[in-house]
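Forwarding the complex inputs:
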Amino acid sequence: MKFDILENLKTIRKIKNLKNFSDSKEFLAEIRHKLEVFIEENPVDRFSVIKAEDSRLLNLERSFLIIFNKLKHSKFMPVLIIALIAVLGGGGAGLAAQGSVPGDVLYPVKTLTEEARTVVAFSAEKKAELQTGFAQKRAEEVKEILAKEGVDSKNLGLALKNLKKNVARAAEMVVKAQEKKADGQLAKRIAEKLDASKAVIGEALDAEKEELAAKTDELSDDLAEAEGAGDEAKAEEVEKEIADVEADEDALAEEEAKVEDEIEEDVDKIEKAMEAKEAAEKAIAEAMEAKEAAIAELGELDEAMQAVVDEALARFGDFMVKAEEALEKEHYVQARQHAVQAETSLKHVVRAVEKEIKKQERADRRAELKTKIEERKAGLKSRIEERKGRATSTESANNDAVQPNDVDEAEEADEAESED
Amino acid sequence: MKPLKEQFLVAYDEYSAAIFRHIYYRVSSLNLAQDLTQETFFKAWRHLAREGREVENYKNFFYKIANNLIIDYYRRKHKEAMSLEDVSEAQASSPPAQEKTASRAVDSAIIERMLKILDEETRQIIISRYIDELSAKEIAKITGKTPNYIRVIIHRGLTKLRKSQKNEI
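Prediction (whole assembly, two chains):
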């Protein structure tokens, strides 16, 4: 039970080996050929394209955007945008919308205002800065939603999706600005700001994680109590609740990993636009920080767990040596890649180990409580036996055995007594 | 925006091998897997042409269609007077000789165990999770279950596989 996760990892590795499945190239090329013919014979229905195009947007946004698109190339456009910003951004609904989060009625107004501001922004640099600022707002929204509604909120997905969009656009604009004139400073500035946004989300997720962990601990105590008292129905109920909270924890970890993975790609683009040397040094520094954080976070471990972590650290070390070597040889891109690999390899292991430690802790705690309760119960039983012995000796003529529910009743009475 | 046709073919190039592999592990017959793979992509295009809109996530879209076809296949097979036990037994036997080439590099023991001791649903979910590398959320979307349910099934499936491994040693 203790090393379930490690054993399961082995099984998972074996299953993953099944990925090396080849010999399908020829046949897939054949289908592709057939598909091309099939597509020619069955072209897209023109009418449905138009229908589909506008069913994608939200109603409010859509009606604005239709006007927006119609006037895009007319000479009234600048006037319209200024008017729009005055109305939306200047006051009234626009101002009220600024504090909205996904799920609020005014949220589309907020995103639309942002859209309008991006359109009027003159240069790619300015656009990149704006999008980075919006990404910051998304991070705050994520924080707020997590605090108010928890992981289950569907609005969380929307905020994260929008965050990704902002980061992607910022990256796009940085690259575009870079094409016109190389400016490592812009990329650096944007990367730093995005790092700050990532930190905000990281903290919010950590807070939520802690809350969930506290909840599990509490439930764990309840479970031990229920099991100790022999209340199976209650125990089952609590177990179910624990499973729910644990599922939430998993969902949170998965969400976190996903956000990291997705944003990482775009941050990558930005970092590539930085001075190569600077980017490499930054990645190496970050990887080292990640290692220290991991060691501090995991603390002391038992042998088996330590072995897993040691192995991961060795792998991390290998990557880092390669990174340093590449840096020395002035192969900056490579150096950065190795550092990033090192960091990711470590992250995965830490996540798995953390989860296992938590599980173990909870199990230990539960076992401890259980023995305590059992001891108490045993004490009670012996006292009842004693009393029973006295009773039978006085009523020696009576041969009736004491019924089990009599014991239960006596026990209950005793429990009530001891609780007083 | 690229035309739909190009998008679709790009998606085909990206995912067809994975879809084919997925189907193969689920039906464990090369010929059948080839037929179902072809059917999957023809069906996908028919859907796209009718709706005229690009799909947000081609990967999920393809897996969903493939999954439906596989389920249809098992239903048909079931109707052809074949009991469930027969199905699992037929799958449990090692792949025929001409199919050995396809799975040469593969740990056949684990496949056999997956086929023998896991039910159809668990097998699908485990294959989707670890071979196709879909997330629990994605699998939930494809199968129409909740992510929590998927996680529970994965966990139970893995434990079952691990235990059967131990018993054999």
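Confidence is low (pLDDT under 50) at residues 81-106 of chain B.
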